[in-house]
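step=encode ok
step=design start
structure_in=
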């Protein structure tokens, strides 16, 4: 009997039709523990797990309002929905209509008990955490060699610091043997003297997938590590015991690589800023020194005896010119004043009167001017002054006139 050859799509379509036609799978109630809870867009995604298996679930926007409970990771619930087949990926998904709380799951309770135990012992104390090296030369990456996380970590480390030396330590990141492999890797790395930092992590997964990082032996290995440890397990919303006990928790493996080393461009930019600051500082110093030099030059010029002598000579010449001008002005003013006085004196001088035919009469001693007849008597000697000479006379007779009409 020859079987018909089917395409992958035909097989998936066939399975999808079977599931879609199954009356039980159209409205099924499933009991399990919520894991890997997160929102994507307007839809709520999570994985329903038990000790044997897992089932991906989604609550679409139309049914979000029907969920009357606050769901959390580790919560034991009973969900109602229909099973749907995605033919492109050959995967099952439960489209959830309703969620009822049953209680906290065993895995979550185990997680909380260990968390409280280690916290009470001081494994989470901040003062016990080691400082990360500022500029690590060699980093040990403990993770799965086949996952996307390791490629993200290595690419980012190389991009941010091309000279970084990376030691890849491959381990299992889920399953029964994962915890012991993580512990062995941490111990192995701590025996080396050339490792500055450890990045321990893996990509996202369900709560049970991440459970090796919630193992007590892993937590104590991280705590006892001589080398600082960055824990980078799962997505940003995932928290494990390893995150609490590590020296630093990174939200994702990519973020761990960014936290581990400073971007070389940061240092390059810092060097440029220092260079610019140094250049401005040097210019400022040069400008101050130049200003100081100019002041000293001016001070030196002021103290130079040759310059000082030249300045004093110029000052003396200036004062001399001022003095000459002042003397000339004074002489000119005095001369003008003298001429005015001479002219005034000439105007008032009796000699000018004599030129018009008048004479002046003086007593015999020429000390007093005789202006009235009462001043002389007969036989007195008097002098008559003319313009061109004088004459000594004797008074024969004095005739006095009676003053009339004010004459």
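sequence_out=
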């Amino acid at each position: 009997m020859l079987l018909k050859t089917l395409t992958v799509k035909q097989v998936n379509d066939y399975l999808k039709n079977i599931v879609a036609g199954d009356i039980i799978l159209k409205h099924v109630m499933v009991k399990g523990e919520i894991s890997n809870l997160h929102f994507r867009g307007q839809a709520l995604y999570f994985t329903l797990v038990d000790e044997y298996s897992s089932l991906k679930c989604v609550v679409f926007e139309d049914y979000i309002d029907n969920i009357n409970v606050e769901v959390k990771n580790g919560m034991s619930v009973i969900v109602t929905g229909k099973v749907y087949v995605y033919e492109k990926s050959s995967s099952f998904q439960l489209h959830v209509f309703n969620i009822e709380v049953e209680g906290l799951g065993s895995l979550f309770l185990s997680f909380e008990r260990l968390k409280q135990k280690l916290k009470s012992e001081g494994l989470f104390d901040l003062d016990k955490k080691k400082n990360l090296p500022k500029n690590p030369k060699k980093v040990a990456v403990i993770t799965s060699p086949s996952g996307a996380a390791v490629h993200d970590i290595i690419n980012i480390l190389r991009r941010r610091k091309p000279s970084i030396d990376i030691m890849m330590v491959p381990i299992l990141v889920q399953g029964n043997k994962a915890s012991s492999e993580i512990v062995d890797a941490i111990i192995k790395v701590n025996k080396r003297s050339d490792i500055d930092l450890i990045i321990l992590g893996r990509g996202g997964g369900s709560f049970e997938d991440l459970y090796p990082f919630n193992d007590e032996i892993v937590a104590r290995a991280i705590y006892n590590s001589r080398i600082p440890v960055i824990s980078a397990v799962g997505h940003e919303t995932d928290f494990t015991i390893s995150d609490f006990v590590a020296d630093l928790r990174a939200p994702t493996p990519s973020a761990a690589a960014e936290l581990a080393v400073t971007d070389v461009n940061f240092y390059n930019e810092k060097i440029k800023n220092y260079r610019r600051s140094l250049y401005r500082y040097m210019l400022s110093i040069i400008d101050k020194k130049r200003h100081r030099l100019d002041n000293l030059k001016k001070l030196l010029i002021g103290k130079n005896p040759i310059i000082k002598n030249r300045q004093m000579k110029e000052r003396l010449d200036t004062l001399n010119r001022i003095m000459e001008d002042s003397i000339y002005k004074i002489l000119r003013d005095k001369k003008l004043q003298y001429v005015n006085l001479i002219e005034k004196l000439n105007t008032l001088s009796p000699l000018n009167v004599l030129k018009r035919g008048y004479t002046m009469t003086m007593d015999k001693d020429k000390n007093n001017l005789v202006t009235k007849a009462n001043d002389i008597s007969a036989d007195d000697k008097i002098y008559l002054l003319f313009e061109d000479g004088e004459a000594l006379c004797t008074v024969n007779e004095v005739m006095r006139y009676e003053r009339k009409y004010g004459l």
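step=design ok
step=annotate ok -> The longest strand covers residues 91-104.
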